[in-house]
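Might I ask for a little of your time on a matter of protein folding? Here, with my thanks, is the record as I have it:
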Amino acid sequence: MQDQIGPTQAAFHAAANLDTRGEYGTLVLDGLGRIRSCGEAGERIFGASQVRLVGRRISEFISGLLLGGSSPSYNARYLVYLSADGEWRSYEAKDADGRAFVVELNLSRMVTDGQEIFLLNLRRPEQATHS
C-alpha cells in the first residue's frame, strides 16, 4: 500500500522544484488566508519559527495580498483569482520583527480531499531588502 501525499507534503515537493539560487520558500494557506504550514525557507524569510507563523493570516506579513475587513468568502475568491494565471507579483512585506522588505510571490490552488488550499511560493530578492 502506497503512502498518500498530503497537502503539506505536496507543498514541499512543489518548493523543491523552485530555483534555489536565491531565498525561496513555500507556505500552505487555507481558503481564509491563514498559514497552515511552512518550511525552513519560509521561516527564514519572515524571521519566525513555524510555531509563530502557523494559524496567522498571511495579511499580517504581506500587505495587499488580502484586503482587511473583507469577508472570508471574498478573500477566498481573491486567492483563486490570483492563482489562476501563475504570475509572480511583488508585494511589500514585513518580517516578524516589523522590518519591511519586498517579496515576490505566486499562488497555486489545490483541492485535496475536498479541501481547498493554496501554495504560496515566495522569494525575497536579496537586492530588494531594506531596513
